[in-house]
């Protein structure tokens, strides 16, 4: 089984989220790669080579997706990712209230347009993963694996 984790970060918090997900994949025997989202074209993702895609975005300026992930985000709409399981999780700051980590919701909606299969509900982490958030991210990752194996 192969997974790819695409992340965007300014503060390093989202890289911490991505690392928890990656560590969990590795502990479950999944081959995983970690990639900066701005270096990835969704049109190049193939179900022949990838079973699971995870996007780890931060939320910027009143609920927008990160600038460095805009190309990926926009291209998802016209990309066929049938046969691939996806998940979206990331950090935010609950100081922003209703805009807290909404980039996760926006990415999930874009993935729905791609034909990919949702493997787990996204995990919204306040700032950096604490013990509770780490456990949620581990459960999230294991649910993605279980979806592929189902």
UniProtKB/TrEMBL annotation:
GO terms for molecular function: FMN binding; oxidoreductase activity, acting on NAD(P)H. Keywords: Electron transport, Flavoprotein, FMN, Transport. Signal peptide: none annotated. Its cofactor is FMN. Coiled coil: none annotated. Pfam families: Flavodoxin_1. InterPro entries: Flavodoxin, Flavodoxin/NO_synth, Flavoprotein-like_sf. Belongs to the flavodoxin family. Low-potential electron donor to a number of redox enzymes. This is Flavodoxin. It comes from Weissella cibaria.
């Amino acid at each position: 089984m192969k997974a790819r984790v695409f992340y965007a970060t300014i503060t390093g918090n989202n890289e911490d989220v991505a690392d928890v997900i990656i560590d969990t994949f590795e502990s479950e025997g999944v081959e995983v790669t970690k990639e900066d989202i701005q270096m990835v074209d969704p049109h190049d993702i193939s179900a022949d080579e990838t079973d699971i895609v995870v996007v780890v975005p931060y939320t910027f300026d009143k609920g927008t997706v990160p600038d460095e992930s805009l190309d990926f985000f926009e291209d998802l709409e016209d990309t066929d990712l049938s046969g691939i399981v996806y998940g979206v999780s990331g950090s935010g700051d609950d100081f922003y209230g209703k805009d807290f980590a909404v980039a996760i919701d926006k990415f999930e909606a874009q993935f729905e347009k791609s034909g990919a299969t949702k493997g787990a509900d996204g995990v919204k982490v306040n700032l950096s993963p604490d013990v509770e958030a780490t456990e949620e991210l581990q459960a999230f990752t294991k649910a993605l694996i279980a979806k592929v194996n189902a």
